[in-house]
Amino acid sequence: MKDQPSPIRETDDDARKLARVLLRSARHAAIAVLDPETGFPFASRVLVATDIDGTPVILVSKLSAHTKALAGDARASLLTGEPGKGDPLAHPRLATQCLAEPVERGSAVHERIRTRFLARHTKAKLYIDFPDFLFFRLKPEQASLNGGFGRAYQLDGSDLIIQSAANEEIAARAAETVRDLVERHPDVAEALATRLNAPESASWRICGIDSSGFDLVSGDFLLRYEFETLAGDADHICSNISKIAYSIP
Description:
Blueprint: H1 13-24, E1 28-34, E2 41-50, E3 56-61, H2 65-72, E4 75-80, E5 93-102, H3 108-120, E6 133-146, E7 152-156, H4 167-184, H5 188-195, E8 205-210, E9 213-218, E10 221-226, H6 234-246
Helix pairs in contact: 4-6, 5-6
């Protein structure tokens, strides 16, 4: 009897890029944890943002079942990727197995994540500072990408993380960088939305930058763009964004 061919394809750069976009463009995700009382998987929905190195972050209440589960067992799985028209299984999705790391309130990491989270989820300002809410960084360990029928890949956690020595510097200057860019080009977000064929929406804005790309948000729409190569500093990011927005198609 002949061996059946493996359904898993060899992971290439296109698969890695798709996986990163699916993870970094998610506004929310399904999270699966292990119930500490029964040991059964427990699934819920969480808001998602990313830290400066691309690590997904969630904001959760200490009273929620999934938070209590993570306190006892840091293992979690995050499902990202939105279905569109037609068969939901024909659309790409990413299941990322993670280890949850609580973020200490008042730390520099907490302030950075809080700023990035609010830029993406402005309505979270109503409860983000409640004492019973906390952030977790979900460190990717490995991931399973389904790019559609017949397109399955296995990825390492490192495929989803931005490996750049400039991460901290870019994070420190992120707000200033975006502000300066908008001052020079007041229509930059709209120009980017047009060039990237974003859904029609009232007002787009840049809600996040990092060495690997940038995020645009408008209402319930979030668009992630990945650079071809990592940017070395904030000026490099501005240059990349300007070229994308204003270069001749």
